[in-house]
Specification:
The complex is a heterodimer of chains A (about 450) and B (about 90).
Chain A: H1 4-15, E1 21-28, H2 38-52, H3 56-67, E2 71-78, H4 81-84, H5 92-109, E3 113-119, H6 127-142, E4 146-154, E5 158-160, H7 161-177, E6 189-193, E7 214-220, H8 223-231, H9 238-267, E8 271-275, H10 288-294, H11 305-323, H12 341-349, H13 354-361, E9 368-374, H14 379-396, E10 400-407, E11 415-417, E12 424-426, H15 436-440, E13 444-445
Parallel strand pairs in A: 1-2, 2-3, 3-4, 4-6, 7-8, 9-10
Antiparallel strand pairs in A: 1-7, 4-5, 5-13, 6-10, 11-12
Helix pairs in contact in A: 2-5, 3-9, 5-6, 6-7, 7-14, 8-9, 8-10, 9-11
Chain B: E1 5-13, H1 18-28, E2 32-41, E3 44-52, H2 60-74, E4 76-82, H3 84-90
Antiparallel strand pairs in B: 1-3, 1-4, 2-3
The chains are: A alpha/beta (about 450), B alpha+beta (about 90).
Chain lengths: ~450, ~90
Amino acid sequence: MININEVIETNKMIEKENLDVRTITMGISLLDCISDDVDKVCSNIYKKITTLAKDLVSVGKDIEREYAIPIVNKRISVTPIALIGASCCNSVDDYVKIARTLDEAAHKVGVNFLGGFSALPAKGMTKSEELLIRSIPKALSETENVCASVNLGSTKTGINMDAVALMGRIIKETAFLTKDRDSIGCAKLVVFCNAPDDNPFMAGAFHGVTETDNVINVGVSGPGVIKYALENVRGKDFGVLSDTIKKTAFKITRLGQLVAQEASRRLSVPYGIVDLSLAPTPAVGDSIAEILECMGLEKVGAPGTTAALALLNDQVKKGGIMASSYVGGLSGAFIPVSEDRGMIEGVECGSLTLEKLEAMTCVCSVGLDMIAIPGKTTASTISGIIADEMAIGMINQKTTAVRIIPVEGKDVGESAEFGGLLGYAPIMKVNEFSSEEFIKRGGRIPAPVHSFKN
Amino acid sequence: MAKSKSIITVVGKDQVGIIARVTGYLYENNVNVEDITQSIVAGFFNMMMIVDTGASTKEFLAISKELEELGRKIGVLIKLQREDIFESMQRI
């Protein structure tokens, strides 16, 4: 039987250590909404989303109250829209029309983000995918809740450098069209290598074609809980450190699984996966950087940071995998700059640079996330940054991503303000030597050899 | 709702009659108490009850809300949570 100390511990995690469930994300297949008429597609999409997800928010709130656990976000992911619009979209405006429909549907059911305005040109780009990509700046500037993502490469296919070059320009254009709000459009746009089909986290969530019609995925959180646990083992060796992280990750994941199963049962939608990611927020004590500092680094970015993050990421996975048989999505530690107070401080005091962040992305989930850079950064430099990150993912058989914001009109020393969960970010310095000629080549970087692992 | 076991926690400054008032409410609403653990740490009252809400005519969320209100009246924090959250987090 449960005893009082266990109850106190769990409630302390929730009340004092920022334990929460970051998101319940309902994946919805839109494949049956396809038609050759864009208006028909829009009405099909609206009807499908508002019918299937009508109870998502209220069920989420009921679970929150019954377990007294905050569920921060309720969200929706849909089939990559480049597939849905292929037979009916002949112009950028046709795709923007679909984006507006998605936005309206998201408002109607009360979710705060809807992901899946996406294309997957990992190897080659169809006309429809290119059209969708070209519509992203307008779509993101004219909608509130829609998130876009593009998968630019994979370990199996190599990297589509034409798409990488295009995305550099698209990111610049998105930044320009949303310049009145510190280029916030770019905060809703992410590019991937090895994008997972079942990621519940934004901005990169989409409902992959390997999925069933309808699914519930849950993303947990809990950097605060791990940090508090590590405060009790200061000075102990790495064995104790690893054990403490594993045990805590186990508990966090179990909570995620419980919420996923409850949501699945109440909504009569199958349960897909729990995403083990440690997702920070700008709240004090809810930071990945603070965990790394708690391990013994003076500031995040100091030598040893990559090793500390590698250990953290691996132990979170080990504890989490023990707790749930269906783990998926991105699963690891997120290191977004703007959403993590410790990361922001690291950038501000000069301990954390873009290059160190890049190294850190080799050992943790995702990649260069929510990084504000000077608005004057060229499209080819952005493409260069993307190409580097895609290469890390391709070679290391992991998911990597870039969500970078060239803040129009701002430069190093200033900061961008996005508000809410997206936080704020000091503008980071970017290496200004040119990548122009490299990006201009066009074509593909071939898939890597899967042997000779050195 | 098949699963009806829940945990009530009461935390606050100690005073006369906390248990009486909480159990009084539970009795009126036909909520059975299966276990009680209680202690005073540095003048702070800490109580955990395992209860069964299955036989009550009231909805779970209504009981939860009324208990919170009762807590406000007494000047303590009362929380009703379904038991599975503790079971899943604390047991392999």
